[in-house]
Write a structure and sequence with these properties.
Strand content: 5-15%
Largest sheet: 9 strands, mixed
Oligomer: single chain
Number of helices: 14
CATH architecture: Alpha-Beta Barrel
Shape: globular
Number of domains: 1
Structural class: alpha/beta
Number of strands: 9
CATH topology: TIM Barrel
Helix content: 40-55%
CATH superfamily: Aldolase class I
Order of helices and strands: EHEHEHEHHEHEHHHHHHEEEHH
């Protein structure tokens, strides 16, 4: 197995928003223990890129900025996805002081009322924080962090993608717009109520979504594979030539200290071990077993429903239905 160079670390499952599609609202509300965070860094010496983001709002962790400093002390690049509600003057200045590589703000709509209905927060507050971040970065003459948007598309917000692009352009953002459909994997879907289940895209919706995503990607490309964690992790991925990038060189540290093969694996039975009780060799062995099963053309149960896993398995066994890999779930 290759060394782990990419890790998504979940600082917390707590959040000040109430998005109906978020799995984190159905998980125990907790912060990652500092000791587990430090132990994970110490036992993964080859790490080069960390994304501080999980099912909660990362800036709520009381030692969030200590996490960035600890990563940088090991020459690890750091990015994050935030809901943007906490981007006041003090937080913005600390983010710029910290030298993070990318910041993406999650949203589904740039319409204030629709934003409020989906997220339970005020769009105007997020917009003000983003404008402050852009202005302060310019005042300092910095070219980082790249500042962009992470968009989950619901059936009712397909028509909002154009407005999000206008919002991105008007604010002068430069980190790209990353667009994904509402997550349909069982670990997420089981938490949807009837109204949210209706927001999953139909086959016809999916065709329109793909066209919108291509248009947004061309209009607001994510700059370079090095800036954005998920693009860097998946750079050069070809299921015919390699296995799942997560299983090859990535790991996910959950807020309870458990380690998973990727950010999709939400169930306790899918975890590879715990950073405090399992040796790196034991965790790596379980990861290698998943990769070997997938490389044999058999999608592991922990990977069920993942389009990346289906694409890899299909490349090994042509009878399996192919599907283009979707990006990992953002928040």
């Amino acid at each position: 197995m290759r060394p782990i160079r990419f890790a998504q670390i979940e600082p917390t499952t707590r959040c000040n928003y109430v998005c109906g599609f978020c799995a984190g609202r159905h998980m125990p509300q907790r912060d990652l223990a500092w000791e587990d965070f430090e132990r994970f860094l110490a036992t993964h010496p080859d790490l080069r890129h960390v994304e501080l983001q999980g099912e909660g709002e990362p800036l709520l962790h009381p030692r969030f900025f200590d996490m960035i400093a600890a990563c940088h002390a090991r020459d690890i690049a750091v990015g994050l996805i935030t809901n943007g509600s906490l981007l006041g003057e003090a937080v913005v200045d600390r983010l710029l002081d910290a030298g993070v590589r990318s910041i993406h703000i999650s949203m589904e709509s740039a319409d204030p009322e629709r934003f409020r209905r989906i997220r339970g927060g005020r769009f105007e507050k997020v917009e003000a924080g983003l404008r402050l971040l852009v202005r302060r970065r310019a005042e300092r003459g910095l070219d980082q962090p790249a500042i962009g948007l992470a968009v989950t598309v619901l059936r009712d917000t397909l028509d909002d993608v154009g407005g999000i692009w206008c919002f991105y352009r008007d604010l002068g953002l430069d980190g790209g717009i990353v667009v994904q459909p509402l997550q349909g994997m069982a670990a997420y879907r089981r938490h949807y109520d009837a109204g949210m289940a209706r927001q999953l895209l139909s086959a016809a919706d999916a065709q329109r979504f793909q066209a919108l995503r291509r248009a947004v990607t061309q209009a607001a490309p994510v700059p370079g594979h090095e800036a954005f964690f998920y693009f860097a992790l998946f750079a050069g991925f070809d299921p015919a030539k390699g296995s799942c990038p997560w299983l090859e060189r990535g790991a996910y540290l959950a807020s309870d200290g458990s380690i998973a093969g990727c950010c999709f694996m939400k169930d306790a039975g899918d975890r590879l071990g715990h950073v405090a009780t399992d040796t790196p060799a034991a965790t790596a062995g379980r990861r290698a077993a998943l990769a070997a099963q997938l490389d044999a053309g058999d999608v592991p149960g922990a990977c069920a429903g993942c389009s990346t896993a289906r694409a890899v398995a299909a490349a090994r066994r042509p009878g399996i239905s192919r599907a283009p890999p979707e990006p990992p779930p953002l928040r």
